[in-house]
Amino acid sequence: MCEYLDMLEENGKAKGLKSGRAQGLKIGRTQGRKAGERRLADLFASLYASGRDSDARLAVTDEAFRLKLYQEFHISR
């Protein structure tokens, strides 16, 4: 009987961990997406305020250029 209860407890723990991980990943993705959007919005605001519209257009398609711009404007992750 005791072994059966131990097995049920372990099964419950495993299900709880799996559920907790899934929930944590969902929360992390949501937070990461929001942070990325804020970062990009900050970059575009800085570019447009500086009159660098063409750099904003290029930043949309050129990841390496966009990363340089983040450094230039001191926009961290």
Structure description:
Helix content is 87%, strand content 0%. With 77 residues, it is mostly helical. The longest helix has 48 residues, at 2-49. The radius of gyration is 23 Å and the shape is rod-shaped.
Number of strands: 0
The largest β sheet comes out as: none
Would you tell me the overall average pLDDT? 93
Count of helical segments? 3
Element string (H = helix, E = strand): HHH
Radius of gyration: 23 Å
Structural class, please? Answer: mainly alpha
Amino-to-carboxy terminus distance:
53 Å
| Form type | rod-shaped
| Strand fraction | under 5%
Measured as a percent range, the helix fraction is over 70%
Low-confidence stretches: none
List keywords for this structure.
77 residues; 3 helices; single chain; mainly alpha
What layout of secondary structure does this protein have?
Blueprint: H1 2-49, H2 53-61, H3 63-72
Compose a concise summary of this entry.
The protein is mainly α. The protein contains 3 helices and no strands.
